[in-house]
Design brief:
Order of helices and strands: HHH
Distance between the termini: 83 Å
Helix content: over 70%
Shape: elongated
Oligomer: single chain
Radius of gyration: 26 Å
Strand content: under 5%
Amino acid sequence: MTTLMEQEKQRISQRLARLDAEREKLSGELDELEIAERVLARLGGKRLQPRSKGEHAREKRRRVLPRRVEAEANRKRPGFRSATPV
């Protein structure tokens, strides 16, 4: 019975050690990200905001569609005026 308890205690201790090491690693990564954010703010970089899935999809579509196809798609929308003639 004591052997089982000792094995369980050792297993839990090892798991705690792994979790502590992972927490340390993540803490270091968070520190690096915060430093990078401050540097970007100083250099006039735009602060990154989390995006919704819809915004991400629209941006991706915008990058993929050629300019002419995008202009034609925009013309089909009522009330849309293109800044550049096609």
